[in-house]
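Hi all, long-time lurker, first post. I run a small reading group and we've been trying to get comfortable going from sequence to structure in the token notation. Rather than ask abstract questions, I figured I'd post a concrete chain and ask someone more experienced to write out its structure so we can walk through it together at our next meeting. Sequence below, copied exactly:
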Amino acid sequence: MNTEQPVRRQHSHMAWVGIVGIVGGAVLMVYVPSLKAVSKGMLLFAGFHFVGLLVLLASAYVVGGNKIVAHFRTSSHSQDSAGFSFGWAPAWTHGPWIAALILGATAVALQVAAPAYWPVAMASTLLAASFFAGGLVTRSVGQYERAFLPMVDLLSGDEKVVLDAGCGAGRTTIALGRAQRTAQIVALDRFDSDYIEGGGKLLLEQNLRKAGLAERVRIERGDLTALPFADQSFDAVVSAHAVDHLGKSTERGLREILRVLKPGGRFLLVVWVPGWTMFSVANILALSLSSKRTWRQRAASAGFRITDEGTFNGNWFAVLKKPEA
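-- Answer (accepted) --
Happy to help. Here is the structure in token form:
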């Protein structure tokens, strides 16, 4: 029996979403119903109390209530229809919908209590719709049927060894195992992510067993900027939504991946870039993401040559090749 405990980190995303949600819910329950234009209508008065309570409960769930709920239910409730759980933290999956509720209620309050500010109400309505769409996106990313990779020229021949760099709870590892039926896979992560519950290692082990991949996947704990492997260890590397979390160490991470690749080996990189999909999830924060052009420059600077690129699910992917010896 595996008794290893997952690495814990303070969930900063949880804290911010919870604080904003609790403040917003309190305003909707206490201040907005006290407005004269709102208090005159029973439906509006009761409606704002209900929405405010809903926001408060959702925010409490994000900042810790999910653990209490999980204690009184079976683990199958957190799994998808195929029995997998990729552990997306509540702040990531519920945050956009909390924002949508607050913004939608704000739009109604402005239209009722201060009609002259209708342009602000309109903007709030549009943002609420955007965040609602973002909630649909984040709810779908953790499902098994979306655990796939773009069809690219990554490997040729049998008995190859592939590294999943930044595997998390195994969504990409499973996709890789489904696409490459004979390859041996090494799944590496620090397992301390603040947007995957528990860091992901125990969930990864469970998911690999359910997918029938436990015998083909070796799990390693390590850092993308200092990979614990010898030079030229892998025939190919895949990394989805990990390298774009390295910040100032991004180029160092790319050079480490180049180092462990065999000459002529390919690296499938999947990252978030500014676009409508990410805008629906993160709003103006999506503008802080690196552009495709920046990623092309980083890849070239690290020593890679781009052989293919495209988009899927709102993400940008590129196949980067290490020069032949």
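A couple of things your group might point at:
The longest helix spans residues 42-71.
Residues 1-11, 71-77 have pLDDT under 50 and may be disordered.
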